[in-house]
TrEMBL record:
One of the Pfam families matching this protein, by short name: SNase
Protein's name in the database: Putative nuclease
InterPro entries to which the protein is assigned, alphabetical: SNase_OB-fold_sf (IPR035437), Staphylococal_nuclease_OB-fold (IPR016071)
The species this protein was found in: Sphingobium indicum (strain DSM 16413 / CCM 7287 / MTCC 6362 / UT26 / NBRC 101211 / UT26S) (Sphingobium japonicum)
Biological classification of the source: Bacteria, Pseudomonadati, Pseudomonadota, Alphaproteobacteria, Sphingomonadales
Signal peptide extent: none
Regions that span the bilayer: none
Domain TNase-like: 29-108
Length: 125
């Protein structure tokens, strides 16, 4: 993701970490503007994380990934991860996770209000 240029990948080249994060060649890619349930093993204190909801969210993202995959980097987060809009088969994966109820919209994380513009139905919650 060097240089923050959109890149295309095959779904087989990606690993789904959880419902809002992928790894591409070892680099974490955080989906723009959403938060999915944390994997229970990584759950922070005082945060609600259930094994079932985190697994469902991760599996939902996994099932939605289909070629071609396009990753459009937007920024880096406080942890140095690439924050990106990820399209799979032409669909915005953040919008899909919101539509399915597998993530929640975080307006403060929606840089440039891109998701608010692309997936209006899902960001009005």
């Amino acid at each position: 993701m060097q240089g923050m240029i959109a890149a295309m990948f095959l779904a087989s080249a990606l690993t789904v970490v959880d419902g809002s994060m992928l790894r591409v060649n070892g680099e974490p890619i955080r989906l723009l503007g959403i938060e999915a349930p944390d994997i229970a093993d990584r759950c922070r204190k005082r945060k609600a994380c259930t094994r079932d909801s985190s697994r469902q969210s991760r599996e939902s993202l996994k099932r939605a990934l289909r070629d071609p995959i396009t990753i459009v980097p937007v920024a880096r987060d406080a942890y140095g991860r690439t924050v990106a809009i990820v399209y799979a088969g032409g669909l915005n994966m953040s919008c899909e996770q919101l539509r399915k109820g597998m993530a929640v919209y975080k307006p403060a994380w929606d840089l440039g209000r891109r998701l608010a513009k692309e997936c209006r139905f899902a960001t009005k919650r």
